Amino acid sequence: MATASPTLGTLMRHLVELLDRDVEAAYAAAGLAWRPRNTPVLRALMELGPASIRALSHEIGITHSAVSQTVSQMAKDGLVELRPGADARERIVALSAKAEAMIPALRKQWAATNAAAAQLDSELSAPLSKIAAEAIEALTRKPFGERMRQAAQAQAAKPEP
Protein backbone atom coordinates (compact mmCIF):
# COMPACT_ATOMS: atom_id res chain seq x y z
CA MET A 1 0.00 0.00 0.00
CA ALA A 2 1.44 3.36 -1.04
CA THR A 3 1.82 6.12 1.51
CA ALA A 4 -0.23 9.22 0.70
CA SER A 5 1.70 12.35 -0.18
CA PRO A 6 1.92 14.81 2.70
CA THR A 7 -0.62 17.62 2.61
CA LEU A 8 0.25 21.31 2.67
CA GLY A 9 -0.48 21.59 6.39
CA THR A 10 1.73 18.61 7.21
CA LEU A 11 4.56 19.97 5.08
CA MET A 12 4.31 23.43 6.69
CA ARG A 13 4.32 22.02 10.23
CA HIS A 14 7.30 19.81 9.40
CA LEU A 15 9.18 22.75 7.86
CA VAL A 16 8.59 24.93 10.92
CA GLU A 17 9.63 22.06 13.22
CA LEU A 18 12.88 21.57 11.28
CA LEU A 19 13.68 25.28 11.34
CA ASP A 20 12.69 25.97 14.95
CA ARG A 21 14.40 22.83 16.30
CA ASP A 22 17.78 23.85 14.91
CA VAL A 23 17.40 27.53 15.72
CA GLU A 24 16.48 26.64 19.31
CA ALA A 25 19.47 24.27 19.49
CA ALA A 26 21.76 27.09 18.30
CA TYR A 27 20.40 29.37 21.03
CA ALA A 28 21.03 26.65 23.63
CA ALA A 29 24.57 26.04 22.33
CA ALA A 30 25.22 29.78 22.73
CA GLY A 31 24.01 29.58 26.34
CA LEU A 32 20.74 31.37 25.63
CA ALA A 33 17.46 30.19 27.14
CA TRP A 34 15.43 31.49 24.20
CA ARG A 35 12.48 30.29 22.14
CA PRO A 36 12.32 31.22 18.45
CA ARG A 37 8.69 32.31 18.87
CA ASN A 38 9.89 35.05 21.28
CA THR A 39 11.91 36.77 18.57
CA PRO A 40 9.12 38.69 16.79
CA VAL A 41 7.86 40.05 20.13
CA LEU A 42 11.35 41.09 21.20
CA ARG A 43 12.06 42.75 17.85
CA ALA A 44 8.75 44.63 17.99
CA LEU A 45 9.46 45.84 21.53
CA MET A 46 12.95 46.92 20.44
CA GLU A 47 11.31 48.95 17.65
CA LEU A 48 8.25 50.30 19.50
CA GLY A 49 9.35 50.39 23.11
CA PRO A 50 6.70 49.39 25.67
CA ALA A 51 3.53 48.47 23.82
CA SER A 52 0.12 46.88 24.21
CA ILE A 53 -0.60 43.33 23.05
CA ARG A 54 -2.76 44.86 20.31
CA ALA A 55 0.07 47.09 19.07
CA LEU A 56 2.47 44.14 19.11
CA SER A 57 -0.02 41.99 17.20
CA HIS A 58 -0.39 44.71 14.58
CA GLU A 59 3.37 45.29 14.31
CA ILE A 60 4.23 41.59 14.03
CA GLY A 61 1.28 40.58 11.87
CA ILE A 62 0.09 37.65 13.98
CA THR A 63 -3.06 37.18 16.02
CA HIS A 64 -3.72 38.89 19.33
CA SER A 65 -4.12 35.43 20.90
CA ALA A 66 -0.73 34.22 19.63
CA VAL A 67 1.01 37.37 20.89
CA SER A 68 -0.77 37.12 24.24
CA GLN A 69 0.34 33.50 24.69
CA THR A 70 3.93 34.30 23.76
CA VAL A 71 4.01 37.35 26.04
CA SER A 72 2.60 35.29 28.94
CA GLN A 73 5.38 32.72 28.53
CA MET A 74 7.98 35.46 28.19
CA ALA A 75 6.70 37.03 31.43
CA LYS A 76 7.02 33.65 33.21
CA ASP A 77 10.58 33.43 31.87
CA GLY A 78 11.37 36.93 33.17
CA LEU A 79 11.88 38.38 29.69
CA VAL A 80 9.11 40.98 29.76
CA GLU A 81 7.31 42.98 32.39
CA LEU A 82 3.57 43.63 32.27
CA ARG A 83 1.77 46.65 33.61
CA PRO A 84 -1.80 47.91 33.29
CA GLY A 85 -2.69 50.00 30.29
CA ALA A 86 -5.09 52.90 29.85
CA ASP A 87 -8.10 50.70 30.50
CA ALA A 88 -8.49 47.64 32.72
CA ARG A 89 -8.37 45.18 29.80
CA GLU A 90 -5.13 46.48 28.29
CA ARG A 91 -1.69 45.30 29.33
CA ILE A 92 1.50 47.12 28.41
CA VAL A 93 4.49 44.91 27.67
CA ALA A 94 8.06 46.09 28.24
CA LEU A 95 11.38 44.32 27.94
CA SER A 96 12.92 43.27 31.22
CA ALA A 97 16.55 43.93 32.13
CA LYS A 98 17.15 40.20 31.55
CA ALA A 99 15.92 40.46 27.94
CA GLU A 100 17.83 43.69 27.34
CA ALA A 101 21.03 41.97 28.49
CA MET A 102 20.43 39.12 26.01
CA ILE A 103 20.06 41.36 22.95
CA PRO A 104 23.76 41.48 21.90
CA ALA A 105 24.03 37.66 21.96
CA LEU A 106 20.66 37.32 20.23
CA ARG A 107 21.76 39.69 17.47
CA LYS A 108 24.70 37.36 16.75
CA GLN A 109 22.32 34.40 16.53
CA TRP A 110 19.97 36.34 14.24
CA ALA A 111 22.86 37.17 11.91
CA ALA A 112 23.79 33.47 11.73
CA THR A 113 20.13 32.53 11.21
CA ASN A 114 19.78 35.06 8.38
CA ALA A 115 22.96 33.78 6.71
CA ALA A 116 21.73 30.17 7.00
CA ALA A 117 18.34 31.18 5.57
CA ALA A 118 20.05 32.87 2.61
CA GLN A 119 22.08 29.71 2.03
CA LEU A 120 18.91 27.60 2.15
CA ASP A 121 17.18 29.99 -0.27
CA SER A 122 20.09 29.59 -2.71
CA GLU A 123 19.52 25.81 -2.80
CA LEU A 124 15.83 26.05 -3.63
CA SER A 125 14.09 26.54 -6.97
CA ALA A 126 12.63 29.75 -5.51
CA PRO A 127 13.61 31.53 -2.28
CA LEU A 128 11.55 30.18 0.62
CA SER A 129 11.30 33.65 2.13
CA LYS A 130 9.82 35.01 -1.12
CA ILE A 131 7.34 32.14 -1.48
CA ALA A 132 6.27 32.52 2.18
CA ALA A 133 5.75 36.29 1.75
CA GLU A 134 3.76 35.72 -1.45
CA ALA A 135 1.61 33.07 0.24
CA ILE A 136 0.89 35.41 3.17
CA GLU A 137 -0.10 38.20 0.77
CA ALA A 138 -2.37 35.86 -1.22
CA LEU A 139 -4.02 34.56 1.97
CA THR A 140 -4.50 38.11 3.20
CA ARG A 141 -6.32 38.95 -0.03
CA LYS A 142 -8.35 35.73 0.01
CA PRO A 143 -8.27 33.61 3.19
CA PHE A 144 -7.78 29.86 2.96
CA GLY A 145 -11.23 29.23 4.46
CA GLU A 146 -12.83 31.11 1.58
CA ARG A 147 -10.76 29.09 -0.89
CA MET A 148 -11.90 25.87 0.81
CA ARG A 149 -15.57 26.91 0.66
CA GLN A 150 -15.26 27.73 -3.04
CA ALA A 151 -13.54 24.40 -3.74
CA ALA A 152 -16.24 22.51 -1.84
CA GLN A 153 -18.97 24.33 -3.79
CA ALA A 154 -17.24 23.56 -7.08
CA GLN A 155 -16.93 19.89 -6.14
CA ALA A 156 -20.57 19.72 -5.07
CA ALA A 157 -21.63 21.22 -8.41
CA LYS A 158 -19.79 18.54 -10.41
CA PRO A 159 -21.96 15.66 -11.59
CA GLU A 160 -21.09 12.30 -10.05
CA PRO A 161 -19.30 9.94 -12.47
Account of the 3D structure:
This protein has a three-stranded antiparallel sheet with strand order 1-3-2. Among the domains are: 76 residues, Arc Repressor Mutant, subunit A, CATH 1.10.10.10; 31 residues, no CATH class. It is built from seven helices and three strands; from the N terminus they run H-H-E-H-H-E-E-H-H-H. The protein is mainly α. A hairpin with a 6-residue loop joins strand 2 and strand 3. Helix content is 67%, strand content 7%. It is globular. This is MarR family transcriptional regulator. Keywords: DNA-binding, Transcription, Transcription regulation. GO terms for molecular function: DNA binding; DNA-binding transcription factor activity.
Under CATH, the homologous superfamily of the domain at 35-110 reads: Winged helix-like DNA-binding domain superfamily/Winged helix DNA-binding domain
Number of strands: 3
Principal-axes shape call: globular
At the fold tier of CATH, the topology name of the domain at 35-110 is Arc Repressor Mutant, subunit A
CATH class of the domain at 35-110: Mainly Alpha
Q: What is the percent of helical residues?
A: 55-70%
CATH architecture of the domain at 35-110: Orthogonal Bundle
The number of helical elements comes to 7
Largest beta sheet, briefly? 3 strands, antiparallel
Order of helices and strands: HHEHHEEHHH
Percent range for β-strand residues: 5-15%
Low-confidence stretches: none
Organism: Cystobacter fuscus
Protein name: MarR family transcriptional regulator
GO molecular function, one term: DNA binding
Keywords: DNA-binding, Transcription, Transcription regulation
